């Protein structure tokens, strides 16, 4: 019995010892590698350097060009549309109701100011002439009567009250004549025609419509014998010796534009065909359709160009200046859609640097951002440097 208790005690001691050892043993942690390959990492904040050995440097013999910057006038490109110039376009309309009895000119005909275009036969016009003739006769009668009464009053044959009444009646007759004259002038009858009404007992109730400006008949809206209402359009006359060009500038560029800025105007298809002008005015608000700021340029046309309705290209030279950085075209290459250059850091090291291109003209690239004056870029062996930079990327992977 005693031996059983001894064995039981030994077993309990062994269990206790094992438990103590298991509690003191260090735990192992499992670390999961979450890093991604270098080719998938974001390179926007990482500078990529291409390091050449002395042998590679001597074999490549890379030539570099120092970057220079200068301040030049800011140039803004914008689309433009040609419109008739203010004061050089006119809608011809009839001032009275009537019937078109004569059409003197047709579309494409050149006309001079004052030239007869249409004839409108109108009862309303006949009534205006009749009213004028009655007023003319009444005014002449009252003027003669007043002159007689003034003589009789001087001779003390007539009273002063009769003279005052005759003066008032003459003034009323004169006012009626002025009113009838103004109505005829309002419908476009010249003084020479009005003078003929009083000299001749016969007249035709036919109104002559004349051209208000020199120009070309662009459009006829009526036909012979057509009845027309007052203020109805008959035709349109354009004087294309001067035109209005409206340019549509983005709100961001509009802050740099002001009246007086020089503009080079060219055809959209032929940029070598240009005409120079200056901004006449700048509209204060945004155009509702294009959401752009409209600039107005009034220019004389040259050999009939530009014509109203034509689309043009505008290059506006702003008075504001900007710093321009230019590099040779052979220094530029692309990684996909990203333009890049290789900037020299030291004799054996070049940096692969992305840049933003403003525009490319001829053999030069104008850089918007990414380079500074004083830096040097490789202008030869650019494709070799590009291949080495790709090899470094693969090596990292």
From TrEMBL:
Pfam family, one: Beta-barrel_RND_2
Domain Multidrug resistance protein MdtA-like barrel-sandwich hybrid: 95-238
One GO location term (cellular component): cell envelope
A GO molecular-function annotation: transmembrane transporter activity
Signal peptide (from-to): 1-18
Residues in CzcB-like C-terminal circularly permuted SH3-like domain copies: 325-386
Superkingdom: Bacteria
Keywords annotated in UniProt: Coiled coil, Signal, Transport
Presence of keyword Cytoplasm: no
CusB-like beta-barrel domain span: 253-318
Signal in keyword set: yes
PROSITE patterns the UniProt entry points to: PROKAR_LIPOPROTEIN (PS51257)
Coiled-coil regions, chain positions: 149-183
One of the protein's GO biological processes: copper ion export
Entry-linked InterPro entries: Beta-barrel_RND_2, CzcB_C, MdtA-like_BSH, MFP_Cation_Efflux, RND_pump_MFP
TM segment ranges: none
Protein family (similarity comment): Belongs to the membrane fusion protein (MFP) (TC 8.A.1) family.
UniProt protein name: RND efflux pump membrane fusion protein barrel-sandwich domain-containing protein
């Amino acid at each position: 019995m005693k031996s059983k208790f001894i064995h039981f005690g030994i077993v309990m001691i062994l269990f206790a010892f094992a438990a103590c050892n298991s509690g003191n043993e260090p735990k192992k942690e499992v670390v999961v590698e979450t890093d991604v390959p270098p080719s998938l990492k974001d390179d926007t904040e990482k500078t990529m350097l291409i390091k050449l050995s002395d042998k590679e440097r001597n074999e490549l013999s890379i030539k570099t060009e120092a970057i220079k910057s200068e301040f030049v006038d800011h140039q803004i490109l914008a689309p433009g549309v040609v419109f008739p110039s203010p004061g050089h376009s006119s809608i011809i309309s009839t001032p009275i109701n009537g019937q078109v009895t004569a059409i003197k000119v047709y579309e494409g005909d050149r006309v001079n100011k004052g030239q007869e275009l249409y004839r409108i036969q109108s009862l309303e016009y006949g009534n205006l002439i009749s009213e004028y003739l009655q007023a003319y006769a009444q005014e002449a009668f009252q003027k003669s009567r007043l002159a007689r009464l003034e003589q009789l009053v001087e001779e003390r044959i007539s009273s002063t009250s009769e003279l005052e009444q005759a003066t008032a009646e003459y003034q009323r007759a004169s006012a009626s004549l002025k009113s009838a004259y103004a109505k005829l002038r309002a419908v476009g009858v010249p003084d020479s025609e009005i003078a003929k009404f009083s000299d001749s007992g016969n007249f035709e109730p036919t109104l002559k419509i004349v051209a208000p400006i020199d120009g070309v008949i662009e459009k006829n809206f009526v036909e012979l014998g057509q009845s027309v209402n007052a203020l109805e359009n008959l035709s349109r006359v354009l004087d294309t010796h001067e035109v209005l060009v409206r340019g549509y500038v983005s709100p961001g560029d509009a802050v740099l534009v002001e009246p007086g800025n020089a503009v080079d105007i060219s055809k959209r298809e032929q940029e070598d065909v240009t005409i120079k002008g200056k901004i006449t005015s700048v509209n204060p608000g945004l155009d509702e359709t294009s959401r752009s700021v409209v600039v107005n340029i009034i220019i004389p046309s040259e050999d009939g160009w530009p014509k109203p309705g034509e689309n043009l290209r505008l290059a506006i030279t702003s008075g504001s200046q900007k710093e321009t950085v230019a590099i040779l075209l052979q220094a530029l290459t692309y990684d996909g859609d990203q333009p890049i250059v290789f900037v020299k850091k030291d004799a054996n090291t070049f940096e692969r640097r992305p840049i933003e291109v403003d525009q490319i003209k001829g053999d030069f690239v104008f850089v918007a951002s990414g380079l500074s004056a004083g830096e040097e870029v490789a202008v030869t062996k650019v494709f070799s440097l590009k291949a080495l930079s790709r090899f470094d990327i693969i090596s990292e992977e």
